[in-house]
Design brief:
The complex is a heterodimer of chains A (93) and B (481).
Chain A lengths: L2 H10 L6 H18 L34 H6 L4 E2 L2 E2 L7
Antiparallel strand pairs in A: 1-2
Chain B lengths: L5 H9 L5 H14 L6 E4 L1 H10 L12 E5 L26 H8 L3 E6 L33 H8 L5 E6 L5 H6 L3 E4 L19 E6 L2 H11 L29 E5 L8 H16 L3 E5 L7 H16 L18 H12 L2 H14 L4 H22 L5 E5 L16 H5 L6 H6 L3 E9 L2 E8 L5 H13 L15
Parallel strand pairs in B: 2-3, 2-4, 7-8, 7-9
Antiparallel strand pairs in B: 1-3, 4-6, 5-6, 5-10, 9-11, 10-11
The chains are: A mainly alpha (93), B alpha/beta (481).
């Protein structure tokens, strides 16, 4: 795990680290990855991946309106809102 | 009333020895007396007392007017829900999790939200933004995690029952370290709706209590189909309490060959004593093999971070939670809010998850881990053709001192879940049961069952508890008062 890779995955994760933080993270991620690398010892050819322990098809229910519009309750929790919208810094110059 | 079980408190309510208000008051008093345990993130005295005063006690319902504490990742409308993270400090959900609604319906009275590892990522409760939780058995020692506050709140006798969640052992390991019984049900048994997600294909809620009987009572109330969770099983609530006294002496317990050299001498002795007790009770013991189980920790540390990196992308500083004040544009708003809001362990796991899902690594890590997951799951299926339940230790050791594990090498702490993780990968139920103490501290063993066989592990654990008294031991608590 080099400095550049840590920088890339930090950006993909929308996280930033201090210089020291990034250095420690490099070491930590290396340790974790070498633990994970044990998986390469196993022959998994012809094994289907198992993405969920529940291999049932998702249950579909009717699309019915069944609760009140809770717009205000949700906007109340927003750090910043304006009339009916979440407010964020200007996106278009 | 301190340290009484749900069943004992129910009897006291039935005989009118205590009133619901007295019971709730006592619980709140203990919560204050032992505040130095730091097991609660938030205590809702007013709401609890109002409910106690206005509730009509129902003698036919074993949970009626029983005080409970919920792990601080179950959303409760209008009650602070933080996941022990700075990013959710002060968050007031506009809805209540299904599992909390289910327990409310049968009359449980919520006293508090319990401390936990941040976003349930940890095995020692040391990653919480609100600080460490002490183990009631020994100050400055961890209660286990991530449901550490839940375990400490029951072990200290403040409440008889707490909810927890278990993604890799987060109910069972703290239960073992605090001398409690903790059940992780089959994946899909309990609705995850309103439960803040960590790793969606592994997360499952469950009860932490003193006894298997209390876990059965709680499980029956917590389970049932919920159309708001697409992975919720289309079945009604369990009826585990009704069948708790059914003992089948023909049961065979499988002992995992691959775990045989993983314990210290003292832990091994405690585990052997549990095996002997089961033998004396008439259970057959058989050695079984799960050849790939040793890979369950690395498998988990691909799948759980991958799912967490996706789940935690919702924390962006826009709709709820912390928003960084120091931003010039939208991109900085995302980055700074997340960087200020998440702790180190959460960042580590998001980064690992992002890495294993990124282009070029997906097949080597993510797909590979999901293939190994299937191998481990099919090994369980084969094993359950030779035995009814699998018996293992719950954790490799007892409670350890703060900062003694994982500060230099994070994977050291990940091995705490060596025995528990595989049940999450396979989605099968497992319970931790108190056993012989090791150097004065609690330890536990684990019973694992095939899908949907919660009743079987609860019966077996109850049978063990009728013939042992480890689960009846309670901590002194003097240093916390």
């Amino acid at each position: 795990m080099d400095k550049e890779t840590v920088r890339t995955i930090c950006y993909l994760s929308r996280l930033s680290l201090s210089e020291d933080g990034a250095k420690n993270m490099e070491t930590d991620l290396d340790t974790i990855l070498s633990m994970i690398d044990q998986l390469q010892e196993i022959d998994t050819s012809n094994i289907e991946p198992m993405f969920s322990p529940l291999e049932q098809t998702a249950i579909i229910h009717d699309d019915e309106v069944n609760s009140d519009n809770q717009k205000d309750a949700y906007l109340d929790q927003a750090p910043e809102s304006d009339s009916n919208f979440f407010r964020v810094p200007k996106v278009v110059e | 009333m301190q340290h009484k079980t749900v069943s004992e408190l129910h009897d006291l309510l039935v005989s009118k020895t205590i009133t619901p208000t007295e019971l709730v008051n006592e619980s709140l008093k203990l919560a204050k007396k032992y505040s130095s345990l730091n097991c609660f993130n938030f205590i809702d005295e007013e709401r609890a007392l109002t409910k106690a005063k206005t509730s009509l006690f129902d003698p036919s319902n074993p949970l009626s007017c029983i005080p409970v504490a919920h792990k601080d990742l179950f959303c409760i409308k209008g009650m602070q829900t933080t996941c022990s993270s700075k990013i959710l400090d002060g968050y007031l959900p506009p809805f209540t999790a299904t599992v909390v609604q289910n327990l409310d319906k049968v009359g449980c009275i919520t006293i508090a939200k319990t401390n936990m590892d941040e976003f349930a990522m940890g095995s020692s409760n040391e990653t919480s933004y609100f600080g460490n939780v002490h183990n009631p058995w020994l100050k400055n020692h961890v209660p286990g995690g991530s449901s550490g506050g839940a375990a400490a709140s029951v072990s200290s006798g403040i409440v008889p029952l707490a909810t927890g969640t278990d993604t890799g052992g987060s109910i069972r390991q703290p239960a073992a370290l605090c001398n409690l019984t903790g059940l992780k049900p089959t994946y899909g048994r309990i609705s995850r709706w309103g439960m803040i997600a960590f790793a969606s294909s592994l997360d499952q809620a469950g009860p932490i209590a003193h006894t298997a009987k209390d876990c059965a009572i709680a499980l029956d109330a917590m389970t049932g189909h919920d159309c708001k969770d697409t992975t919720s099983l289309a079945m009604g609530p369990t009826k585990a309490f009704n069948s708790i006294e059914v003992f089948s002496k023909d049961k065979t317990l499988g002992i995992v060959k691959e775990f045989s050299d993983q314990l210290s001498h003292d832990m091994e002795k405690a585990f052997q004593e549990s095996i002997n007790t089961y033998k004396q009770l008439g259970y057959k013991i058989k050695e079984i093999s799960l050849p790939n189980i040793k890979y369950s920790v690395p498998t988990y540390y691909v799948i759980a971070p991958a799912e967490c990196s996706s789940n935690l992308s919702r924390f962006d500083g826009v709709r709820f939670g912390l928003r960084s004040k120091d931003v010039k544009n939208l991109e900085e708003l995302y980055i700074n809010s997340r960087s200020e809001g998440f702790g180190n362990e959460v960042k580590r796991r998001i980064l690992i998850g992002t890495y294993v899902l990124s282009a070029g690594y997906y097949d080597a890590y993510y797909k590979k881990a999901q293939q190994v997951r299937r191998l481990i799951t099919s090994e369980f299926k084969n094993a359950f053709e030779q035995c009814d339940l699998i018996l293992t230790p719950t954790s490799p050791g007892t409670a350890f001192a703060f900062d003694s594990k994982g500060s230099k090498d994070p994977t050291e702490l990940y091995l705490e879940d060596l025995f528990t993780i595989a049940a999450n990968l396979a989605g099968i139920p497992a319970i931790s049961v108190p056993q012989k103490f090791v150097n004065g501290l609690p330890s536990g063993h684990q019973l694992i069952a095939p899908h949907l066989h919660e009743e079987s592990i609860l019966q077996t654990a109850h049978h063990f508890q009728l013939n042992t008294d480890w689960h009846l031991r309670t901590p002194q608590m003097e240093e916390f008062a």
